Amino acid sequence: MPCRRKSNDKDRYVDHVCDMIPALVRDRLVDAVDAFCEGIAFSPEQTARVFAAAKAAGLRVKLHADQLSNLHGARLAAEHNALSADHLEYTDEDGAAAMARAGTVAVLLPGAFYMLRETQRPPVDVFRKHNVPIAIATDCNPGTSPITSLLMTMNMAATLFRLTVDECIAGVTRNAARALGRGNIGTLEIGKACDLAIWDIERPAELVYRIGFNPLHARIRKGKP
Questions:
Q1: Spatial separation of the C-alpha atoms in residues 13 and 30, rounded to whole Å
Q2: According to the model, what pLDDT value does residue 7 have?
Q3: Are 82 and 48 in contact (CB under 8 A)?
Q4: Rounded to a whole number, what is the distance in angstroms from the first to the last CA of the chain?
Q5: What's the rounded Cα separation, in Å, for the pair 73 and 79?
């Protein structure tokens, strides 16, 4: 969704998006709706309109929120039972508690934090306190996070946000799957889809520790190397 428009243009654009959603669902082109709630983007009220249209069409929602300021985006995401809320540098404890109650995943994006030279770190301790599941993503985009390496993203999450090795690994597996609404992947269990990455390492911590090195030995997709 565009980020730099006059207020009336934003409202017209929101109307356009809401009008498009039913056709996108009918043609099976979308499985969730994401929005960006921020001072430079869309207001909580505009975001809520898009979410209402998405929910009416049977779609789950996701939100980029609280990146540059606290517009209570985390709480807004929780109120709409969002799968996830991303960024969250300025999220307060009320927002974190609301996410915990709703089961909304906190997706941390250290690549954007690094590229924008941000200093406000997401409240990881508060997320831990309320047992908010934490995922990690590259947020790969040409404007604020031109990073494609998930391994580097894990290292950034550990060094910049002080996540543990276990949190980083869970953040790119089971919690990442949860953020996508994909309960059929993300953990090793009987009956689940199983694509595998086989790493040439001695211990899992190496995946988070090493910088600029990919110890991938082999990949198996749908049972085939």
A1: 18
A2: 56
A3: no
A4: 38
A5: 10
